[in-house]
Amino acid sequence: MTPEEVLAARDRLVPDVVAGGLRVLFCGINPGLMSAATGHHFARPGNRFWPVLHLSGFTPRQLKPAEQEELLSYGLGITNVVARASARADEISDEEFREGGRLLTAKVELLRPKWLAVVGITAYRTAFGEKKAVVGPQERTIGETRVWVLPNPSGLNAHWTAQTMAEEYARLRAVSETGGPGPEAGG
């Protein structure tokens, strides 16, 4: 893929990988240009989503972005807070994030996953007006769907290593497999 083809993907949409009743619906901030150019989520080389998903035990092997549909067989899916692609998340306005939060809420109400996992604390805080939110399970629910904020797997997020991210993702995996604590635990 040429740099021109990647740049031409600005503002494109990447289709969600979703189904009703998922165990975990992962929610990225917004697609990057490589994801928009390929049509695959978390496609930029250096993004740690796919390795971390495997290291945390969500998938039995490391999937490639082109294999994203396989997630559905594990009860997993992917969407984004903001649908349009950009080179960087800081190109998305606070209003776009808030509107994305409203649209995401409607999507979650329709699809009813057990868990919504937002991968990016700043995006979560802005989209849902939760300025003091921290990584981990949230008090907020959307219908019966629990919410967990995970670290952003972007290679630019130097605060988290692949291993420390995998540990946080594994906390969610363990709870999602057992029903875990929460207002609708086991139900």
From TrEMBL:
Keyword Cell cycle: no
UniProt keyword terms in alphabetical order: DNA damage, DNA repair, Glycosidase, Hydrolase
Signal peptide: none
Enzyme Commission code(s) on record: 3.2.2.28
CDD domains on file: UDG-F2_TDG_MUG (cd10028)
A Pfam family: UDG
Name recorded for this polypeptide: G/U mismatch-specific DNA glycosylase
Protein's gene: mug
